Amino acid sequence: MTSSETQNPTNGSYPPGTHPDLPPPSTAYGPVHWIKVNLFGGVTNTVLTLLFAYMLWKIVPFLTEWMFLDAAFTGESRRDCEATAGGACWAFIGSRLQLFIYGFYPEAQRWRVDLTFVMLILALVPVLYDATPHRGKGLIFACLYPFIGGWLLIGGLGLESVSTDQFGGLMLNVIIGVTGIAFSLPIGIVLALGRQSHLPIVRILCVGFIEFIRGVPLITLLFVAAVMLSYFVPPGTNFDLLVRVLIMVTLFASGYMAEVIRGGLQAIPKGQYEAADGMGLRYWQVMRLVILPQALKISIPGIVNTFIGLYKDTTLVIVIGRLDILGIGNSSLADSKWQGLSTEVYVFVALFFFISCFSISRYSLYLEKKLHTEL
Amino acid sequence: MSEVDISEESFTPIESSMGEEELIQIVAMHKWYGEFHVLKDINLAVKARERIVVCGPSGSGKSTLIRCLNRLEEHQQGTVIVNGIELTGDLKKIEEIRREVGIVFQHFNLFPHLTVLENCTLGPIWVRGTPKKEAEESAMKYLERVKIPEQALKFPGQLSGGQQQRVAIARSLCMNPKIMLFDEPTSALDPEMIKEVLDVMIELASTGMTMIVVSHEMGFAKTVADRVIFMDEGQIIEQNEPHEFFDNPQHERTQLFLSQILAH
Questions:
Q1: Nearest residue to A213 (alpha-carbon basis) of A292, A310, A301
Q2: How many domains does chain A have?
Q3: pLDDT given for residue A2 in this prediction
Q4: Domain that includes residue A241, residue range
Q5: Is A8 contained in some domain?
Q6: Which ipTM was obtained for this model?
Q7: Residue A10 within any structural domain of the chain
Q8: N or C, which end of chain B is more exposed by having fewer CB within 10 Å?
Q9: What span, in angstroms and rounded, lies between the C-alpha atoms of B109 and A270?
């Protein structure tokens, strides 16, 4: 026994307590191993892999051909497209790109929209990345941004006034989406905390608000915004329709947000409250420093879900007669020069939303990873 | 160090005003959870620098008792005076008492989203208004005292149970409390980690900290406690200095309890 152990140390045993750390056997890692285990491990797995490969082989070449290789990028009408290529007619989108982006915003003033977009990105960077240089100043700018952006878009005070009736296209989606996202989170937090309050009045108000908002379709709220709200404001005052829509969309998202955050709050063990209370921290300090950072972290998937839902719901403004990117697309289909190109329009609109929403989703994954503090 | 001096000064007049330098005074306290009578007619006085171990079977109200001292639990009848302040629903007074009373929990309750150092500086910075740098220096001093300064920048989830509990003790000490409450501090630990936590507590006791410890660590009670209190069914059954308590228990429930926990 003893001699065979000493002769074959890699296989055999060592004296108790002296076993060194050995590398894993070569069959347990490497790309070949990965493919074998993950793509062809077992009959079901192999069948799925082959099916998926077949689907890719069918779809990818067709799509690349339609979207790029066989597509027409220039032309003045559908006939031009068909004369040059058999695939997608992107010339249609190209010729109306301005409309898709700016809606009916006066052409001479469109630089203001561009500037607002650029400033939006500058305002978002310090909010989203805590390693941004001069983050403190960046955050101040982000807080001022809604006012600067609003002034740039609407005008007044030295700029030519533009009615919000002329807003449209992608800029409308971004304005409603970003406003809704920015304001629904804090309102949702307050509602979620209010729902847990030990003061009955606060609790009843919050529960009532949340249940009402969630129980009514967004379209209904938008109709209310368009038609009914004007009854509640004094006659003669001009309460802008876009502002009404922004309020409704924000409140709608807040209701959902509150419930998502409540889920996160409920996952925080009682001991965390006790430890924070036991130090002598006040209620809002406990929430801000101890409970919310943890609850929001847990709620990230749900919060992002709500954000993405809200962002896509911005297309619903079509029901009150505003033309967002989808509305512009729809109405473009009526153009006799470009008839029958609905696929191109919807693919373009879908791509726009997909890119936006996928970016939000990726950012949330990054954030989850960054906030992960376990082993 | 200057903070310690200040607390010492403000502490003397309170002592004299209470006559018998009693930091905690509980008179005829009762507590109910709904219909359930958890604490029945508790009377207890704790002097400054006194070290008390509370033991008793589970469900006897030990934890509830010490949680009533910083109002994590509310009592419904009787008087509780801590550090010269009577505990009532008054939030200001509760906060004032909580600043002076540290508590260490069975499950550590460290804040998992903050580093060890941030856990320790949170209270001083936000409750006491200590400048961040000063709070960090003081926190490092306490982390050295519990022998884990090298873990300061890690997150609690990366530490062992014993290390987490030592951080929890350091976190409480950073607030410069006059009283430390321990709620079964070693019950959730693996056997080999109990000693490192008890060592820290013994060291703390030797500095003259007023301590109330809910624990079944009888060795700790024998070496450290000035008084051992035995509770059962929400009442204080017996209290005595440790040698008398262990060698010559008076009440039959105490005898039964001691025979059960010392049997293994």
A1: A310
A2: 1
A3: 46
A4: 110-327
A5: no
A6: 0.89
A7: no
A8: C
A9: 9
